[in-house]
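EI: anyone free to look at a 243-residue chain?
SC: sure, send it
EI:
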Amino acid sequence: YNIDISLKDISLLSQYAENKYVGVNCGIMDQFAVAMGKKNHAIFLDTTTLQYEYAPLNLGNCRIVIANTNKRRGLGDSKYNERRSECEEALRRLHIVTDADTLGDLTNEEFESYKEAIKDDILIRRARHAVYENQRTIEAVEALKSDDLQRFGKLMNESHISLRDDYEVTGHELDTLVEAAWEQEGVIGARMTGAGFGGCTVNIVHNDVIDSFIENVGRIYKEKTGLKADFYVVEVGGGPGKI
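SC: here you go
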């Protein structure tokens, strides 16, 4: 339509539409990743300032495998908005002892010294996930820049554990897929992706075991949930452009 609008602004408009018309208090990450994607790179994005940089994703003899739980859920009906509110309340309570603008402004050590000001175990766990996940993201970028895929995979695993135990957004289906993946030979890392409560997992798997990975994880998932998972071997592509 020859509209003079940047890809970054398109991502912001997409977020606005989801917030205002769908009713999900989502952030900008998914929309930004789609709009600004770069082939074979991850995006390191500061969602408060929209400053970003690309980190090379050199998978070597591995591939990314997406596993879909095929459990239907609507973000508006899930606890997605509730988690956002819990983090905001935790930050509000922390303002008694710190002037941090966001939970991500705190180091792990600062959070541990301040957390008792929150005075609620559930809110402490929600905030702990946000703080520690931010640090894991920083370490993940460093791992990618150093071509340390093993370290990157370990951080993926730690992220899922935190999403499961502290943020509590995984559920039986996602946990079953991830835990089955962890048991397989040749898996570098596995975690849920997206908002949780269903949806997909992302796995980094050695090329030579992809078929057995799909067979074994799919079988375990069907046995434990009664659902059939779908698997997709994918590549990291660029953002939108003319075909």
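EI: The CA atoms of residues 28 and 50 lie 9 Å apart.
SC: 👍
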